[in-house]
Design brief:
This protein is an alpha+beta fold. The protein folds into 4 domains: about 25-75, no CATH class; about 80-125, no CATH class; about 130-175, no CATH class; about 180-225, no CATH class. The protein has 6 helices and 18 strands. It has helices spanning about 1-20, 105-110, 160, 205, 225-245, 250-275, and strands at about 40, 45-50, 65, 75, 95-100, 100-105, 115, 125, 130, 135, 145-150, 155, 170, 175, 195, 200, 215, 220. Strands 1-2 form a two-stranded antiparallel sheet.
């Protein structure tokens, strides 16, 4: 008699299940879904409901149970980037929840360079930059200008932050520039000029001289014949003149003694006239 009752109840349950049909994913009424892990087909009309205590998430390949009791849920065993569920991803401070779902957990996963864990331990926040005595908050310009705090580091950003007085913007940087466009500390195209403190000054030793001129200290001057070369030239000229005089029968001795001889002859003539 009891056996017959069990058969009757079973038949009733089967008949009721057949009468109720199945859920949207094809799961028969009163069964765990094989497509939606942790879900049970029940209700009228039949609908999938989460019952992880009845339908284990692990019954569907690639899924695991996360949490316990009523908070339990089914998540994919791995995320899209290959990170195991519950593990930190390379993209700090993200932790893999499952599939394409990630969550911030800075306390567990840490932060990228130049960032620190926020007070709540969930997010990462930027570390302020230091520009001398000034603290520069992330995304703002330094009071000294030209620099901006980006990801905890000061970078040149003259287009946004401007330049200090006396400097000119060159791309994203600032520099002292002389009147001809030469940058501070560089040589001008006009030798021997160097740009120093915004002024063009002579520096032949560093910047060289124009063609045909030579460096004399910081300045450039015309190239000069050396003293030794000049002496040689004068000596050669003197020798040539002496050789020419000898060829004409004139010697240095005759030149220096001729006036004396003439004086002697003139004196003798005068004495004879007196006698």
């Amino acid at each position: 008699m009891a056996f017959a009752f069990v058969l009757l109840v079973s038949a009733f349950g089967l008949g009721h299940a057949l009468e109720m049909g199945s859920c949207a994913d094809g799961t028969p009424y009163g069964k765990c879904s094989t497509k939606n892990p942790g879900h049970y087909c029940t209700g009228s009309p039949p609908a999938l409901q989460l019952y992880t205590n009845l339908c284990k998430c692990e019954a569907v390949p690639g899924w695991i149970t996360q949490g316990t009791g009523e908070q339990a849920n089914c998540v994919q065993a791995k995320c899209d980037d290959g990170t195991m569920s519950g593990s930190c991803t390379p993209n700090k401070p993200k932790v893999c929840i499952g599939g394409s779902v990630y969550a911030d957990n800075a306390s567990k996963c840490g932060c990228p360079p130049n960032k620190k864990v926020s007070a709540n331990g969930i997010f990462c926040e930027s570390i302020p930059c230091k520009d001398g005595e000034f603290t520069v908050e992330e995304g703002t310009c330094s009071p000294k200008k030209a620099k901006k705090c980006v990801d905890g580091a000061l970078v040149d950003k003259a287009s946004e932050c401007g330049c200090p007085a006396g400097q000119t913007r060159i791309g994203e940087s600032c520099a002292v520039v002389c009147s001809d466009g030469t940058k501070e500390g560089e040589c001008s195209a006009s030798k021997p000029k160097e740009c120093l403190n915004g002024y063009l000054v002579d520096n032949a030793a560093k910047c060289g001289c124009p063609e045909g001129k030579a460096a004399h200290g910081k300045y450039c001057a015309d190239s000069a014949v050396s003293g030794a070369a000049g002496s040689e030239l004068l000596g050669s000229a003197g020798s040539a003149e002496g050789a020419d005089e000898e060829s004409r029968g004139i010697s240095p001795i005759s030149c220096c003694c001729l006036p004396t001889a003439l004086i002697g002859i003139a004196g003798a003539f005068a004495l004879s006239r007196r006698g």
